[in-house]
Amino acid sequence: xxRGRLFLLSGVLALAAVLCLALGASATPDIxxxxxxxxxxxxTTADANLYECSGRPASVADELSAVREPHARASxxxxxxxxxxxxxxxxxxxxxxxxxxxxEDIRRGGYSGGxxxxxxxxxxxxxxxxxxxxxxxxxxxxxxGPK
Length: 147
Hints:
Blueprint: H1 3-27, H2 31-38, E1 40-44, E2 48-52, H3 57-67, E3 72-76, E4 79-83, E5 87-94, E6 97-105
Antiparallel strand pairs: 1-2, 2-6, 3-4, 4-5, 5-6
């Protein structure tokens, strides 16, 4: 094979790889859209949408995790938490509703302020979605003064 044909072949293969990557990325379902299509929204607040669900919160979290794998998952006092690129999804009781899905946009909600830090490292504000940073601490004291 001539050198020109090898360059042409490598260009075609590179283009095919880019197309496959784009198709693969677009085929990954958006969890917010899935929840909006699948569950009935009953309220919208300044920082979240709330949806009715049925069954145990852990089962609903399993179903959502099967649709799109979360970056982190934790549970606390009967509520399941799933962290995605741009969203925190909390599944648990809300008032007299035994199963509610709360979808909170990480960029708008209390996430950046560390509201979910108690859930562990995957929910720390310095997570991949660009929270408020996660410094090593040590803001005062010591012989050198404040850092």
